[in-house]
Amino acid sequence: MQEDFCIADHVLKAYRGQNAEVQIPQGVTKIGERAFAHCGTMTSVVIPDSVAAIGKGAFAYCKNLQSVRLPEHLTAIGSAAFLGCEKLTRITLPETLRTIRELTFAECTGLTECTVPEKLKAIEDHAFRNCTSLRQITLPHHTAVSSQTLPGCEIRRAPAPPPVEFVIKNGELKAYHGRGGDVVIPAGVTKIRYNVFCGKKSLTSVVLPEGLTEIGDGAFKDCTALARVTVPNSLRSIGEEAFSHCEALTAFQFPEGLQEIRTGAFQSCTSLTGVSLPGSLHAVYPLVFIYCFSLREAVLANGITVIARAAFARSGLQRVVLPDSVREIGEAAFESCRSLTDVRLPRYAEIARTHEEEKLIDHPQRQGYIKELVSIPGAFAGTPFGKEHDME
User: Fold this and answer.
1) CA atoms of 56 and 169, how far apart (whole Å)
2) Does the model's pTM come out above 0.90?
3) Has residue 35 been placed in a domain?
C-alpha cells in the first residue's frame, strides 16, 4: 500500500508496512540508507526500473528476504546494502553496475549463486564475507578482486572477449587493432581517420570498401610491407603523407572522380613504377611523388591544370605525358629526375625556370638581415630534358 512508504523528492526514506511481498512504487529513483533495515516480515521485493541507486544498509538484516528483483538501470548499491540477509539464495546484478561495495552481501549465509555484469570493474573487500554457501563465482577477466573478498569461494574467470579489430563510428574508421597481413576494411566505412595504420609494418595488403571517400593524413604512412591496395571508385581525397614511405607498394589505381592527392601523399614509395592520374584532380600537390626512385612513367589526364612544387622531384621518371590543360608547372616539379628524357609538354603552360633573385637572409653573425643571391631551381632542373631544352 502507498501509505506504507515514506517518499520525499523521489527518495524512499523508510518502509512502515508488514507485508511479505513488497513492490516499491514506480517513480522512486533512490532507496535511502537503511530504508528496509531489520524488516523481518518481507520475503520478496520488486524494485522498479526508475530506481538508479540503493543506499547503504538499505536491506540490512532482512532475515527472511529470499527474492530480490533489481532494476535494469541500477548504477549503485551502497555498502552493506544486503548485509545479513540469511535466506537470500541467488542474486542477479544488472549490467549497468560497475562496483560491488564492501559488505554488500556479507553474512548472506544462504547465498549460493551470484551473477555479475560483464563490465564489473571491482569487488571491494569483505563484499561477500561469511557467504559460506557460495562455493563458486564466475567473474569477468578484468574485474579487480582481493584475496579477502571471496574467501573459501572458487573464482572462475570468464574468457576475455576477442579484441575489436576495427573501431568504427558514424562511418569513420577511428582505430585498427588487428595483426596486419591481408586486411579487408568493412563495408560502410566512408572515411579512414588520420594515422590509423601508421607504422603497421606487418600490413601487406588492404582492400578499401566501395563507398569510401576519404583517406586521412598519414593513414598508411610507414607501412613498409604494404604491397597491394584495392581502391574503390568512390574515393575522392587522399590526405597528406597518407601512403608515404610505403616502400613495397608497386602500383596504385587512381580512380576517375578523385579530387585531391594532398602534399607528400606518396613520397618515398620507392617501389612505385608508374602512375596514371585522372583529370578530376585539377592539381598535383607539392611533394606527392618525391623520392619515388622506381617511378618510370607518369601520365596525366586532361583536366589537370597545376603541377606544384617538387611534385615529382628526385624520382626515377623516364617519361612524362602532360595534357594541354596544364597551365602551370611549379618550381622543382621534376628536379633531379636524372633519367627523364621523354616529356610531352602542354602548349600553353607557364614553366618555372632556374633563375637567381635577391632575398633578405637572416645572418646571425652580422646581427641582422643581408641581401644575398638565391638560386631558384626550374621545373626540370637537373634533368637531361632540362639541359636539352635549356630549362635550367
Assistant:
1) 39
2) no
3) yes
